[in-house]
Design brief:
alpha+beta; 2 domains; Immunoglobulin-like; elongated; three-stranded antiparallel sheet
Amino acid sequence: MKPITYGAIGGGAAVMIAIVIILVFQSTPQYALSLDPMMQTGTSTDLHVRIQNTGKAPLTNVRVDYGPGTKADVIPVLNPGETVWLSPSNINTNNVVVVTDDQGVTVIKPYTTPIKTPLADSD
């Protein structure tokens, strides 16, 4: 093969790698989080809240407010990709969780109830 062919192949590969890197890094916002509040009912009601930093930078002073009559939790630092599970002790009256942080991210979500699957007969 001629050197110009190697140059064309190498240049094309470099352009493709650069495009992939640009798309990956631009698609992730700097500050973002995912919130998943769950309410499981049965003989008692259990509340679980999953919070994950889905951005590229750490989030600081992440405040999780469960509603009136409950004590808010504060996560000092939530690093990119890190997930924290919390379990509030009281049931709030409005069934909504509000999460805020120092970077200006605010997420508000209601509790969801997992779908119960029927148990198979164990005859």
